[in-house]
Design brief:
Blueprint (H helix, E strand, L loop, with lengths): L18 H7 L7 H10 L4 H6 L1 H7 L2 H8 L2 H19 L3 H7 L8 E4 L15 H16 L3 E6 L7 E4 L5 E4 L11 E2 L9 E5 L5 E11 L2 E7 L7 H4 L10 H26 L6 E5 L6 H10 L5 H10 L1 E4 L10 E3 H6 L12 H8 L10 E3 H7 L3 E4 L2 H10 L15 E2 L6 H4 L2 H9 L15 H29 L19 E6 L15 H8 L6 E6 L7 H15 L7 E4 L4 H10 L2 E4 L11 H7 L3 E5 L2 H6 L5 E4 L9 H25 L8 H14 L5 H22 L2 H17 L4 E8 L7 E2 L4 E9 L8 E10 L5 E15 L4 E9 L4 E11 L25 E4 L1
Parallel strand pairs: 1-2, 1-9, 2-8, 9-10, 10-13, 13-14, 15-16, 15-18, 16-17, 18-19, 19-20, 22-28
Antiparallel strand pairs: 3-4, 5-7, 6-7, 7-8, 11-12, 21-23, 23-26, 24-25, 24-27, 25-26, 27-28
C-alpha cells in the first residue's frame, strides 16, 4: 500500500544528550574526527552511518540505547568535550580575526554563490568538481574564520545515483530527498512562519522558495527550495534536479539562484543580525543574475542604471571554471527577455539594458545568445580562473570583451584551487604526521618519518581500498542481476601488494576515460605482468543526457568484465564523496589524461597527493603549475601540433604505456636491502611534505581574501552614490570621446644608434604627440610598450613605461608626451605607444576595453634592433 501523506518523526533526545543534535546538524562533523568517533560510539553497529549521516543515525537509534547513553558518565564526558570544542571553534578568533586585529581592512562579510555544494555525502547537492570545490571553499573559510555566507539551491532529487545494466550501460536513479531528514534547518520569521523569497514570472505568475540553512562549521549555507505549496506544479519543479531540464528550466534555476539568492541573504541578515556582505562572489556564471538584483536594489534608492552597475561591479568577484565555450550556459535572447521587464522580474529596469550585459556583442560572438559568463565578467570588477594555465586560457577565450588588448593583458587573474585536507586525508596519515611533529597546515614533518612506517601505512591503506572495492563491486554485480553463486571471483579482485592506479572523475569526452584502452593488448600485458603487474580502479558518471559519455563508460565496463583481467581492473558505479574518501588514500598513482589545456584545475590529483599518492598526469590544470619529478610523472602531449584527434590519442596513449612500463612500475617494485622501494617512498615523502602545503584550500581561500575580497571591499566602500554617478558619467564621457583619441606622431632619439640598431644599456628619448579630442590629460595614460619582437614584429614579454605630458596643447590641439625608454635586453626588440583611459577607481587600465594605438603612418618607425 502507498502512504497518502509523508512526514518525518524526529527523535526525542534525553536532556543530557541534547548537544548531539547540534553536533549532528553542524556539518563540521564531516571533517572532524573526534565528532565522527563520538557518533560511532552512539551506535557501534552503524559506524558507516555515523561516518556519513549522523542525523539519520540519531533517527534510527532506539529509545533504550539513548536512555543508556544518557546514564553513561564516560560517554557524557566525551560528549561535553566534543561539544565544547565545537563551541570554541565557532566563537574563537581565527586567522581572519587576527588579520583584522592587526589593522588589515577586510570585508565585513562575503556572499559566495554556487549552483552546487559538495560538503558531505549526507547532503548530496553536487555533481562533480565545481561543487566539491565550493564545499571545500566553505570549509576552509570556516577554519580561517572568514565571515562568508554560502548561497545555493536545494535539489529535491540532488544529482542522480548511478548503476549499471547487465550490459554495462549507465542507468540513472533520482531518490527523493526529504529536507527534514537532512542536516538542514528551515529559516523562519520572528512569528515562526517559514521565510520565503518570491520572484515574478511572465503572465502574472510567481515563484516562491523557502530557505533552508545548513551550518558548515562557522559558515551558514542558504539553500533555496521551490517545492512549496504556494507554487503551481511547474514552479515546484524548478529545484527538482541539479543540471536537469531544458533551457527554460535551467534559466529559472539560475534566476532563482542569483536574484532569489540575494533576497535570501538579505532575509538571513535581517533575521540573524549577520553583517551584510560587502563582496559578492559568483562561482561560475550560473549565479550571474545576482548582479541584476543588486542593480534593482540600488535603482530603488534613486541611483540610475549605469551608476548602479558601477557600484555593483566594485564589490563583485567572478570565478570562471570552464576552459571551453561549450561549458558555459547560454540562452536565447528572447527567452531571457521574456522573464524580465514589466511582465517578469526587475520591473522598471529596461529589458534591453539587461540584455546588453550578457549579449555576445564582440567579434566571434553570437549576437542572439545571452552568455552567463559574459554577464558575470561585465558585472564583476575582479575575475579569475582556477589555475595559472586556466587563467591564460580564460584570458584568450574572453579576449573579445577587451578589444585592442593582447590576451596577456585581459583582466582575468588566477587563484589556483585547493582542497580541504581534513575532509580528504585518511585519519591514519594525520596520525602518522602528528607523531612526528606535524601540525595542521605544516606537512614538513614527513621528512622525519622512517621509510618503513611510510611504506607500511601505504600498504595498509591499499588493503583497506581492496576491501572497499570488493564490497562495492559485489553490490554492483547484484544490481546488474548476478546471482551470489556467480560472484565467488570477487574475493580475488585486486591485491594489496600490487601497484594500484586510480582514475575517477566526471566523464565528458575531453577527460578521455578510455584512453587507457587505446591498445588493449598492451594494457593487458601491463595488468598481467609476471613480476611488475598493475591494477586499476576506475569510477565516474556521464551526464544523463550524454550518450557519448555513457558509451565510454560501457566500453570501460565491458573491458573490466573480461574474466582475463577483471581481477586487475574494476569500474565502480555511483562515484561520490564517500567513495572518493576511500579511493584517494588507497591508490599509489593518480591518473589524469585530459586533452590539454581543457582541464581547468583537476583537484582530484591534489586530494590524492595529500594522501601520499603520486600523480601521473598530462601537464594541465594545477599539475602544469606545480609538477616536479619528485611528485610524479608528466605524460607527454601533442597539443601543440595540428594532427587529428585520433592520432593525438594514439601518441599520448603510447606515452602513457611507456611511462608505466619503463618508469612507474619499475620504481614501485625496485626493492632495497630491507625490502622497501626506497626511491618510491622518497617520492611519497616529498609529495606530502613539499607539494602538500601548496594544494591546501586554506592557501586558496587566503589568496581570495588578500587578492580579491579585500580589494573588492575597499572598492565597494569607496563607491558611494555620488562617486558611483561620477564614475559612470566619466566612463560615458570617455566612451563618447574615444573615437577622436589618436597617437598622431612618434619620434625617438637615441645616442650611439646606427640605423636600426642600438647599444644595450642606452636610452631612447621618446616624444609623442597625442590627440585627445574632448578629453584632458588627466583622463588618460600614455605608455610606451616594449619587449622582444618576432619575425612579424609582435611584441612579447612586454613592459610598459609611462610617458608624461610636457606643456599644453599645440596649435592643432595635440598634446606632447615625453619619456625615456631604457634598452635593457639584447636581440630583436621593439616598442609601440598607446593611450589608455585612466581613473583612480579603475581596477585595471584595460577595464573599459579602450586603447588607441599608432597607425602605420605614425612617426618615424616603431622599433629598434639591439645587439
Amino acid at each position: 500500500m502507498k502512504a497518502i501523506r509523508r512526514f518525518t518523526v524526529r527523535p526525542v533526545l534525553p536532556d543530557p544528550l541534547q548537544p548531539l543534535s547540534d553536533l549532528a546538524r553542524n556539518l563540521r562533523w564531516s571533517w572532524h574526527t573526534e565528532t565522527r568517533e563520538l557518533f560511532q560510539a552512539v551506535a557501534p553497529e552503524g559506524s558507516r552511518a555515523a561516518d556519513s549521516d549522523p542525523v539519520g543515525l540519531l533517527g534510527a537509534v532506539s529509545a533504550g540505547r539513548l536512555a543508556e547513553l544518557a546514564r553513561d558518565e564516560q560517554f557524557l564526558h566525551r560528549l561535553n568535550e566534543v561539544s565544547g570544542a565545537l563551541q570554541e571553534y565557532l566563537d574563537g578568533p581565527r586567522w581572519y580575526q587576527e588579520q583584522q586585529a592587526q589593522g588589515t581592512e577586510l570585508p565585513a562579510a562575503v556572499a559566495y554563490f554556487s549552483p552546487e555544494f559538495g560538503v558531505a555525502a549526507a547532503l548530496p547537492q553536487y555533481s562533480g568538481g565545481l561543487g566539491i570545490l565550493a564545499g571545500d571553499h566553505l570549509k576552509a573559510a570556516s577554519d580561517l574564520g572568514v565571515p562568508l555566507v554560502g548561497v545555493g539551491l536545494l535539489y529535491r532529487h540532488g544529482y542522480f545515483r548511478q548503476s549499471l545494466s547487465r550490459e554495462g550501460w549507465q542507468q540513472e536513479h533520482y531518490p527523493v530527498l526529504d529536507p527534514n531528514e537532512l542536516p538542514l534547518t528551515l529559516l523562519r520569521e520572528a512569528d515562526g512562519t517559514p521565510s520565503q523569497v518570491v520572484l515574478a514570472l511572465p503572465g502574472g505568475r510567481s515563484l516562491h522558495a523557502r530557505i533552508w540553512q545548513a551550518q558548515v562549521g562557522r559558515i551558514p549555507l542558504l539553500l533555496l527550495d521551490s517545492d512549496v505549496e504556494e507554487n503551481a506544479p511547474g514552479e515546484r519543479d524548478v529545484t527538482d534536479r541539479l543540471y536537469g531540464g531544458g533551457s527554460e528550466h535551467r534559466l529559472l534555476q539560475e534566476i532563482l539562484l542569483g536574484i532569489g539568492g540575494v533576497r535570501a541573504v538579505r532575509t538571513y541578515c535581517r533575521l540573524t543580525g549577520h553583517a551584510e556582505p560587502e563582496v559578492f562572489h559568483t562561482n561560475e556564471g550560473h549565479a550571474g543574475f545576482l548582479g541584476l538584483e543588486r542593480i534593482r536594489e540600488l535603482s530603488g534608492t534613486g541611483l540610475d542604471f549605469d551608476s548602479s552597475v558601477e557600484a555593483v561591479r566594485a564589490g563583485t568577484v567572478f570565478t570562471t571554471h570552464t576552459p571551453v565555450p561549450a561549458g558555459i550556459d547560454r540562452f536565447d535572447r528572447e527567452l531571457v527577455a521574456r522573464h524580465f521587464g514589466d511582465d517578469g522580474e526587475l520591473a522598471g529596469v529596461g529589458v534591453e539594458r539587461i540584455l546588453q550585459l550578457g549579449m555576445e556583442t564582440y567579434p566571434g560572438g553570437e549576437p542572439g545568445l545571452f552568455n552567463m559568463a559574459v554577464m558575470g565578467l561585465r558585472l564583476a570588477q575582479r575575475a579569475n580562473g582556477v589555475s595559472t594555465l586556466h587563467g591564460a586560457v580564460s584570458r584568450k577565450m574572453f579576449a573579445g570583451l577587451w578589444p585592442g588588448f593582447d590576451a596577456a593583458e585581459v583582466p582575468i587573474t588566477s587563484v589556483t584551487n585547493g582542497v580541504h585536507a581534513p575532509t580528504w586525508v585518511a585519519p591514519e596519515i594525520f596520525e602518522l604526521r602528528d607523531r612526528y611533529g606535524g601540525t595542521p597546515g605544516r606537512w614538513d614533518a614527513a621528512a622525519g618519518i622512517p621509510d618503513r612506517e611510510i611504506w607500511d601505512l601505504r600498504r595498509n591503506l591499499r588493503e583497506q581500498l581492496v576491501t572497499e572495492v570488493r564490497k562495492r563491486l559485489s553490490a554492483s554485480w547484484r544490481t546488474r542481476g548476478a546471482e551470489p553463486a556467480e560472484l565467488g571471483w570477487i574475493d580475488g579482485v585486486l591485491d594489496p601488494d600490487v601497484l594500484t592506479i586510480g582514475f575517477a572523475r566526471r566523464v565528458p569526452s575531453y577527460k578521455r576515460l578510455t584512453l587507457m584502452l587505446r591498445d588493449r593488448q598492451r594494457l593487458m600485458e601491463l595488468l598481467l605482468h609476471p613480476t611488475r603487474p598493475i591494477q586499476i580502479v576506475v569510477a565516474g558518471k556521464a551526464h544523463p543526457a550524454d550518450d557519448s559519455g555513457k558509451r565510454l563508460v560501457q566500453e570501460l565496463v565491458r573491458f573490466s568484465d573480461d574474466p582475463r583481467v577483471r581481477h586487475r581492473i574494476v569500474f565502480l558505479p555511483d562515484y561520490g564523496m564517500a567513495m572518493a574518501q576511500k579511493l584517494y588514500p588507497g591508490c599509489d598513482v593518480w591518473l589524469n589524461n585530459p586533452l590539454r589545456p581543457l582541464e581547468a584545475c583537476g583537484t582530484s590529483g591534489m586530494k590524492a597527493a595529500l594522501n601520499g599518492c603520486l600523480n601521473l598526469s598530462v601537464l594541465d590544470g594545477w599539475w602544469d603549475e606545480w609538477f616536479e619529478p619528485d611528485f610524479g610523472w608528466a605524460i607527454p602531449t601533442a597539443d601543440g601540433s595540428a594532427m587529428d584527434e585520433d592520432r593525438r590519442d594514439e601518441l599520448e596513449a603510447n606515452a602513457l604505456y611507456e611511462l608505466i612500463e619503463e618508469r612507474v612500475a619499475p620504481r614501485f617494485y625496485d626493492r632495497g636491502a630491507e625490502g622497501l622501494p626506497e626511491r618510491w617512498v622518497e617520492m611519497v615523502r616529498r609529495t606530502v611534505g613539499s607539494l602538500g602545503p601548496k594544494v591546501l584550500a586554506g592557501r586558496m581561500v587566503r589568496e581570495y581574501v588578500e587578492r580579491l575580497y579585500a580589494p573588492a571591499a575597499l572598492a565597494h566602500r569607496s563607491l558611494d552614490a555620488a562617486t558611483a554617478r561620477e564614475l559612470a558619467d566619466w566612463k560615458a564621457r570617455v566612451r563618447a570621446a574615444w573615437p577622436r583619441v589618436a597617437v598622431d606622431h612618434v619620434e625617438a632619439v637615441a645616442p650611439s644608434t646606427a640605423g636600426s640598431s642600438a647599444e644595450l644599456g642606452s636610452t631612447l628619448a621618446l616624444r609623442v604627440r597625442i590627440a585627445l579630442g574632448a578629453l584632458e590629460p588627466d583622463d588618460v595614460e600614455v605608455q610606451a610598450v616594449a619587449g622582444r619582437v618576432d619575425s612579424a614584429d609582435a611584441i612579447s614579454d612586454a613592459q610598459a613605461f609611462p610617458l608624461k605630458p610636457t606643456g599644453g596643447q599645440d596649435l592643432e590641439g595635440r598634446w606632447l608626451y615625453e619619456g625615456p625608454l631604457a634598452l635593457d635586453r639584447t636581440g630583436p626588440y621593439g616598442y609601440t605607444v598607446r593611450v589608455l583611459p585612466a581613473h583612480p577607481l579603475l581596477a585595471t587600465s584595460a577595464e573599459l576595453g579602450l586603447v588607441a594605438l599608432p597607425t602605420e603612418a605614425t612617426g618615424d618607425g616603431a622599433g629598434v634592433l639591439m645587439r
